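Action item from last week, closing it out:
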Amino acid sequence: MPNKTIVIVNSTGRQAASLARVASAVGYTVRAQLRSTEGLVAQELEELSNVDLVEGPLEDKRLVSNLFVGAQLAFINTTFWGDEVAIGRSLADAAKKAGIKHYVYSSMPDHSIYNKGWPGLPLWSAKFTVENYVRQIGLPATFVYAGIYNNNFTSLPYPLFCMDLQKDGSFQWTAPFDPNIPLPWLDAEHDVGPAVLQLFKDGPRRWSGHRIALAFEHLTPLQVCQLFSRALSRRVKYVQERPIEIRVSIPTGYREQLEGISVLFGDHKAPYFGPDLEAKALEEARELWEGYRGIEEYAREVFPVEERLNGLTWMDEANGKGAS
């Protein structure tokens, strides 16, 4: 049994909760920070063995200063709650002071450093700024760059990954991505935990300073729709369209992120992870974790379950409606 403690922040998020589940199951002690203990994922974490919840915001300096004391490992995926750069720096400082042995940070690229015509996506650029700070202070760290979550898809009217249910029972995905350019995909809930746990097992001697493209499939939008169609036995159509339609209220700053995605990937057709990581996407992730869940399996086994939890009932309609 591992006699080690892993600090996980924003532990109700898909990446963090995935690691908490896997690490606690194999005997690690998990110190899981979360903003609130309300909600289904928080309740699930509370019921897991070896998990100690730390409730409170990451803007709380006392919470952050005590968070890493006595721990050896940390997985950090900051969000746009608050000042992400300031929070990211304070977490790194506290981890350094506490002597964390391996710090895995969920980062993303700033495309503007590769091409003057490419916009830096604001929510990703903040993560890249924090990554550079982590490197500057000398933390033994590894940086994972997550691909597109399979779990982003929903028939609810959220922007970018809405599988819009049509009157004939088929689905339509409308997005700015080129239909024939492959994108990186992963099932965040199923695959982030095992992959990051393997990073911790291998240790900083192998992975310190390394960037890893955490994605397990490279699929074009057309291929994604074909796999969804096969899994659901329904027609699934892809439509490339810019700008991204926004039909619901979205968090502050996310509109600028969506506008940047439309320009960066729709107009400029930039590589998702940037040119440095794109060439070796999949290789290292599959080395870390061979048991990944592909998008066809996700669409068949998980997507209908998540839809039902969202109060949707299309899966109860007569089989074959809208079938291909």
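Closing note: The mean pLDDT is 94.
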